[in-house]
Design goal:
mainly alpha; 4 helices
């Protein structure tokens, strides 16, 4: 079970490592889909946010110990939301039978989750910079 800041950091790093590359990128470039792709932009954002927060959480744990649930829970929530976005990104724009309604529903969910990702990444960044618990 994930019961420490170090565990939360490891979860975030795992999500960053496992964000699946998208098809359609250049053969010798980053696999992020076509240039200017919202999907590619979000994939890169999820990866960067998780890598940065994961490293920060592990560094914090090395200095301060396990932390309390109130301290590490937002990091776990960030990993969970990022994982969900990464999963949904695999389901949009690639399909066997086009279904515009399904595509719109998935994008709406991705955008809603992206708002939550932003909130959680801002909270975790502020926490790591201050070193003190902040209200979420």
């Amino acid at each position: 079970m994930n019961e420490s800041m170090d565990d939360a950091g490891c979860c975030l790093l795992s999500v960053a490592w496992n964000v699946a590359p998208l098809a359609g990128g250049p053969p010798d470039g980053p696999p992020d889909g076509p240039p200017g792709s919202r999907r590619g932009e979000l994939r890169r954002t999820v990866e960067a946010v998780c890598r940065t927060a994961g490293r920060g959480a592990r560094e914090w744990a090395a200095r301060h110990g396990a932390g309390t649930e109130a301290e590490y829970r937002p990091f776990l929530q960030l990993a969970d939301v990022a994982y969900e976005i990464a999963t949904l990104l695999l389901l949009v724009e690639d399909f066997l039978v086009p279904d515009l309604g399904r595509e719109h529903r998935r994008w709406a969910e991705i955008e809603e989750l992206t708002t939550r990702l932003t909130e959680l990444s801002e909270w975790t960044a502020a926490f790591l910079l201050s070193g003190a618990p902040l209200r979420l």
